[in-house]
Amino acid sequence: MAVKKVYGTPACPATMRVLASMLEHGLDFEFIYVDLKAGDHMKESFLSLSPFGQVPVFQDDQDLTLFESRAIMRFISHHYPKPGKEQVYEAPKEQGIVAAWIDVEDHQFDPPASKLRTELLEKPLNGMSADKQVVAEAEANLARVLDVYEERLKDSKYLGGDKFTSADLTHLPNLYYLMKTPVKRLFDERARVSGWCRDLLARSAWAKVVDMVEKI
């Protein structure tokens, strides 16, 4: 019997995004570890699944293979809706709002968040010092994004509307990492953003992702 598969590295934010989506939807799957340090992602067997050599990769039980974490997340939320807890809206207007905020995360939130994650967490782990100028610029850019989020959250509990959707889920990997850094203060200083973060990070599916990451 064919099973769903996720290829990736648990601590990789893109892989975490897909794992969160899978677990939120209650899907059974086989996780296949890709050792990036050993170069597994550049082997022909993996490149045949992900031509750019990036994790994660998702295979469903119907001969579909997808790469790019946000594309996988969108597919899961549309194809495997969880009754009563759907992460999509049937109405095009409402779903259009969700789609817009997914793109905001991709194009506005992720760039400064990823730079801060690299400078404040990844570099020190590898014996390097953070570039203070890069950190300062990324913090300023992230603060501007969070100001927009604070305003948006005046109107709805979540970014995409009044229910948790993929527009919120897609933020979880970077939120998880940034809460471990001094940048946490940027979230704490904004009451609505701070509450939104606590809500997201407390989700039971996310706890399972964190458990997978911290066991590696």
From TrEMBL:
Its EC number is 2.5.1.18. It comes from Theobroma cacao (Cacao). This is glutathione transferase. Residues 91-216 form the GST C-terminal domain. It comes from the Eukaryota. The lineage of its organism: Eukaryota, Viridiplantae, Streptophyta, Embryophyta, Tracheophyta. InterPro entries: Glutathione-S-Trfase_C-like (IPR010987), Glutathione-S-Trfase_C_sf (IPR036282), Glutathione_S-Trfase (IPR040079), Glutathione_S-Trfase_N (IPR004045), GST_C (IPR004046), GST_Phi_C (IPR034347), Thioredoxin-like_sf (IPR036249). GO terms for cellular component: cytoplasm; cytosol. GO terms for molecular function: glutathione binding; glutathione transferase activity. It catalyses: RX + glutathione = an S-substituted glutathione + a halide anion + H(+). Keywords: Cytoplasm, Detoxification, Transferase.
